[in-house]
Amino acid sequence: MVAKRARLLWRAGCGLLVTIGLLGLLVGDGGTSGGSLERPNSLDVAWSFRTSGRALDVSDLPAAVSDRMLAVPQGGTVTVVDSRDGRFLSSARSSADRFTPLGFSGGVMLAVEQWFGQGGKTVLNAYDPATGRKLWHKTAGPNLRKGNKDAWLGQAPFLLDPGPAMELADGRLAGVAPRTGAVTWTRRKPALAPCDQPDPDDPRLPPSPFNVATTANYLVVLKGCPGRTAELEMMNVRDGVSVWEKDLGRSRDSVKVSAVRGVIGVSLDNDLRLFTESGEQILRRKADGKSGLWPLGEARGVVYLSESDDTGQAGAGSSRSHTLHAVRADTGRTLWTRSQGVTANNSLTSEAIVGEVEVAGAYGGDLRWLPGDARLQGPGASSLMDLEGRGSAPVPWPVAGTFVGMSGDLLIVRSEEKDGTRYTALRPSHRAVDAERTAALGGVERQEWPDACGLISAELLAELGRNYVKLPVPSSRKVLGTRLPRPSVCRFATESGSDDGIFSVTVRWVAPDAKAAETYATSVIPWGCAPALGGCVTAEIAKPRRGVHLYTYRTGLEQLPVAHATVVSGRYVLGISAGNDKARTQRLIRRVAMHLAEQADRLG
User: Fold this and answer.
1) If 0-12 CB within 10 Å is exposed, 13-18 middle and 19+ buried, where does residue 335 land?
2) SS3 for 500?
């Protein structure tokens, strides 16, 4: 079985409708016009595409991203979008139980149909992205049948620019003509003994002795196991011919391979070696025993490496501390090193290095309720750095959502909305900022963030009649690393100490204008169903007036319901939260939300 180690920049879901509705939102005031992008500190909306249905209402299947196209699934439909301008191209439809796009190769889109239950089957299909027409299909056949010697094994194919390659049921590697599905060449895999499991207590399968990575035009095959001699081979995907082979010596503990455009990385016991596609070794470097060192790619004669440290704080999820290294491809000399702190993965574009920053306002996967948490502040964010290593504070997205992937120089984000799923393409740019108008706040002045405790008038507190005490939250003076002049979160507790009367007001975000605030707020409401809770469980959203959203938020492992609200008031997005979902608490949250909705004139 072929094990492919590759970073998949995909997630999300889709439908049928295209809009270009956010082009006027957060347009940068200092974008570059030719030449190299310097000191990127802003993300401008390049285009916006909205589907006709919510992705998470069906299932959380990943979208597939390439440099030029985006394939987004929703139920029995996969829609193809030109990711350069957000233009709808075509739709492919299926009656299968699951219909998953894999990506693009040789100018076609590949997707898998799966039928479950008795008589279930798995079928690989190729479609014309321009029309949605099915070009060919291959049914998975793990057991060879007479007259079907070229049956597809059922593993995900390798997607290269000239066309796909796959493993056949008899173990051979094969190249496939992208428009017809005809097998153009085959190569029999060498007979390799299985790897041993280094740790007898590890329940996972032992590593594979045969690992494949891909560049744009080549298959990179690493043969070997811990404790054995490792060999690296480069194969041309057009004809299956070996271009070169290298003996890498014996490893002790680990054997890994990674490939990006123009660079191949092989790690043996944390000893990283970088090769060009021609087979020239351009770098050899030791990583710390607790770190991983991998290439991001090559641009303008410089190779960029990402080093991750696994010694992160408990509770940090999958985040690791990352360090970037820029190395000259011709000499191996390090040009610069930059520490990024705790981030997720990095991506290299033609003009910038884009890192995923884990912030409270971003949400991922099928976590339906997370965006509805009225206590969370800010949308998702990315770290941006130019190719000279000059970076900025985390740069917020104009919408809350899930990072889908990079398409060329564009960052794609998916957001759930009332009537569909929105995909937004963001382009790194540069805008004038200063100590007051920071990049982390989207260029909004720090002084424009109001005092959360001052948003509730003395008259309203008297009307509520419980002798409320204002309790500002000191830590809320910092949002996305920026120090605010006033607290952005305030708790209101009764002197009696009753839990039923406690509520909090949070300044969730301050946008550049009212339209941007409305767009952000729409993406932080928990619309639609949450199938993970069993059936179509909803947040029971009510909208008593424009800008006010009342709903049930679910928290903790037991997903207990609590009353929350999100309010758009001019440029301000405000959150109100309580500790339970009793009728009395719901009335309290409603009254406070209606009061905040009337503050637009005073705030603006």
Assistant:
1) middle
2) helix
Which pLDDT band, with edges at 50, 70 and 90, does 20 fall under?
Answer: very low
Beta bridge pairs of residue 562: 553
Rounded Cα distance between 123 and 358, Å, is 36
SS3 sequence of 236-272: ECCCCCEEEEEEEEECCCCEEEEEECCEEEEEECCEE
Contact 112, 164 (CB under 8 A): no
Strand ranges of the sheet holding 263-268, from the earlier edge strand across to the other edge: 255-260, 263-268, 271-275, 281-286
Q: State the Cα–Cα distance between residues 601 and 388, nearest whole angstrom.
A: 45
- The two beta strands, 64-65 and 69-74, are antiparallel
Dump pLDDT digits (tens) for 378-435.
888 998 999 999 987 789 998 888 889 999 999 999 988 888 889 999 999 988 877 7
pLDDT tens digit string along 130-174? Answer: 999 999 999 997 665 555 778 899 999 999 999 999 999 888 999
- Output the CA torsion sign for 405, 411, 415, 421: negative
Percent of the chain exceeding pLDDT 70 equals 86
Beta-carbon contacts of residue 199 (< 8 Å; ≥ 6 apart)? none
- Size of the chain in residues: 604
Give the Cβ contact number of residue 194 at 10 Å.
11
What CATH code would you report for 190-343? 2.40.128.630
CB 412 within 8 A of CB 84: no
H-helix or E-strand containing 186?
A: strand 183-187
The first and second tokens of residue 333, run together, are: 């000399």
Task: Find all residues with CB under 8 Å of 204, minimum gap 6, and list them.
Answer: none
For 446-603, CATH gives: 3.40.1000
Tell me the residue type at 378. G
Residue 43 near residue 438, CB atoms below 8 Å = no
- Provide the mean pLDDT of the chain: 84
DSSP SS3 for 436 = coil
**pLDDT confidence of residue 171:** 85
Which residues are CB-contacts of 426 (< 8 A; sequence separation ≥ 6)? Answer: 43, 44, 45, 46, 382, 397, 398, 410, 411, 412, 413
Q: Are 362 and 401 in contact (CB under 8 A)?
A: yes
Given pLDDT bands bounded at 50, 70 and 90, which one contains residue 549? very high
Q: What is the pLDDT of residue 387?
A: 93
Q: What is the pLDDT of residue 205?
A: 78
pLDDT at 149: 76
Provide the 8-state DSSP code for 30.
Answer: S
Write the burial class of residue 300 (CB in 10 Å: 0-12 exposed, 13-18 middle, 19+ buried).
exposed
Question: What CA–CA distance (Å, rounded) separates 302 from 35?
Answer: 17
Model's pTM, two decimal places? 0.86
Question: What are the sequence ranges of the domains in the chain?
Answer: 190-343, 446-603
DSSP states along 454-479: GGS-HHHHHHHTS-EEEEE-GGGGEE
